[in-house]
Amino acid sequence: MRVSESAMKRWICRVPMLVPAAIVLATAMPALANDPATATMLFNEGRRLVSQGRYTDACPKFEESERLDPGIGTQFHLADCYEHTARTASAWALFLDVASTAGGTGQEAREALARKRAAALEPHLSRLTIATPKGIDGLQVRRNGESVPPMLWSSAVPVDPGTYTVEASAPGRKPWSTVAVVGKGGSAITVTIPDLEQVAAAPIAAASPAPPPPADEHPGQTERVVALSLAGAGVVGIGIGTYFGVRSIGKHSDYEKLCAGNVCQPAAVPLHDQAVSAGNASTVAFVLGGLLAAGGGVLWFLAPRGPASVAVAPAVGSSSAGATLAGTW
Fold first, then answer.
1. pLDDT tens series, the chain, 329 aa
2. H or E element in which residue 117 lies
């Protein structure tokens, strides 16, 4: 789609104004999905509730409809619903978003109406300013659990009336928080974050030498258990390969019986495919089984053994005498 130069200029001019609006919407709107049928049903249900003056019940319907199938019409009705439920900042931001989308697609009447509604709301916007201290490395600010980017610090950000928990934290500093209540009708609240108190460094305890690791009474036992497991799996793989090999031979034999000369009966085609599939499965099973068995054998012979020991004991019988030699290697 080609965009005219005039439309491009309008978008560029709107960017600074839309930054706070985009941030308001980002926290208000959930992730998008795609279910047009359900979205349409919810949209119609929302309009029915609006006709009855039940805006509090209608807003969730429009929100879910917008999540399932975003549309400029749904956004306009949702903005209107926000305005009637005193969510002025959300309504203002959404009206601006509708105006921008409509302007970019040539819907001048809808753009003008949305912009008019946003302009009417702007004098009644409540704003929250979070003033931050200087010189704190790694400072993090959150509002109702959501991170506030540095570009919004010390700025009067439009917010819906309500209660907001403001938190601040930084490495090596004690965390701080407070609760701000933002009223309706153009209320302006400033929360000033103090210079966060530094945390005293904990004393470093003298490191005690680590105890030596316990001697392994059965060196190589784990390796040998794994080796046996691998070898067992290899035997199973070879067995499976044998089964599929026999099956492939049988299916191929049945296939040849149904093919006399150069003419094959229709039933021969699936037998040929089954023979090829069984043959492929047999090859894979044989290869994997062989690799597992070989790996188990290598691991068995590489497993560590205990130190060699030799013991000699006398052996005396009723008619003989000698010695017994025993040991481990």
1. 333 444 444 434 444 444 455 455 545 444 456 899 999 999 999 999 999 999 999 999 999 999 999 999 999 999 999 999 999 999 999 999 999 999 999 999 999 999 999 999 999 999 999 999 998 999 999 999 999 999 999 999 999 999 999 999 999 999 999 999 999 988 999 999 999 999 987 677 666 777 777 766 667 778 778 877 877 887 887 888 788 888 888 877 776 777 766 677 777 678 678 878 878 888 887 788 788 778 877 876 777 775 544 454 555 555 554 545 455 54
2. helix 108-121
Range of the domain at 117: 5-123
What is the number of structural domains in the chain?
A: 3
Residue 206 in any domain: the answer is: no
In this structure, the answer to whether residues 130 and 42 fall within a common structural domain is: no
For residue 25, the one-letter residue type is L
What is the rounded CA–CA span in Å between residue 312 and residue 105?
A: 99
Which pTM value belongs to this model? 0.52
Residues 6+ positions from 4 with CB-CB distance below 8 Å: none
Which residue reads 């013991």 in tokens?
Answer: 311
